[in-house]
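Below is a filled-in request sheet from our internal design queue. Each sheet records the structural input a requester submitted and the sequence that came back. We keep these sheets so that new team members can see what a complete request looks like end to end.

REQUESTER: design group, bay 2
PRIORITY: normal
MODE: inverse folding
CHAIN LENGTH: 168
BACKBONE (tokenized):
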């Protein structure tokens, strides 16, 4: 009888241990799949164009200098079209080239820089202008156009004019 009593005691423990292990594995798998679904790759325009075929449909974040003459807003559809030029991603490289303002100016006015066409659904931001830094989040379509879901803008020259002694 001792054996049957011991088996009865061990059996529920194993059920709880196996059930708990399966629960932990399920939670880990859910976290991994959710992380992959929301992961964004931060890339430069050069990197994006170098591996464009592999990145179609992926969630990406790209930064570049806005070309002012490319900005077009359709009031009927709410679609904003503009083009951004490549800028370096590394802060050290940006500082070595004279700071963000100088890098944006050079990229927006250099016809040799790689370009990326962007389409954004939404209102046209006031800060969207020539030489502003656009940080766009979205995906690349089959035609190589970046379909932005989120648009962030930085315009360092706007702040340099307002506070010249602090900008330097």
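RETURNED SEQUENCE:
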């Amino acid at each position: 009888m001792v054996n049957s009593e011991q088996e009865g005691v061990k059996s529920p423990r194993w059920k709880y241990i196996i059930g708990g292990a399966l629960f932990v594995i399920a939670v880990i798998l859910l976290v991994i799949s959710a992380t992959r679904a929301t992961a964004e790759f931060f890339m430069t325009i050069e990197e994006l164009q170098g591996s464009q075929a592999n990145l179609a449909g992926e969630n990406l974040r790209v930064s570049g200098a806005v070309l002012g003459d490319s900005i077009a807003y359709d009031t009927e559809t709410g679609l904003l079209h503009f083009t951004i030029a490549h800028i370096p991603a590394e802060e050290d490289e940006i500082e070595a080239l004279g700071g963000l303002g100088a890098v944006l100016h050079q990229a927006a006015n250099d016809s040799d820089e790689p370009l990326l066409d962007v389409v954004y659904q939404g209102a046209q931001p006031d800060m969207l202008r020539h030489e502003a830094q656009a940080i766009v989040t979205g995906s690349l379509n089959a035609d190589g156009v970046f379909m932005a879901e989120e648009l962030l803008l930085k315009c360092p020259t706007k702040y340099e004019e307002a506070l010249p002694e602090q900008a330097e």
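SHEET NOTES:
- The beta strands are 41-43, 60-66, 72-74, 79-86, 115-121, 133-140, 146-154.
- Residues 41-167 form a domain with the OB fold (Dihydrolipoamide Acetyltransferase, E2P) fold (CATH 2.40.50.140).
FILED BY: M.R.
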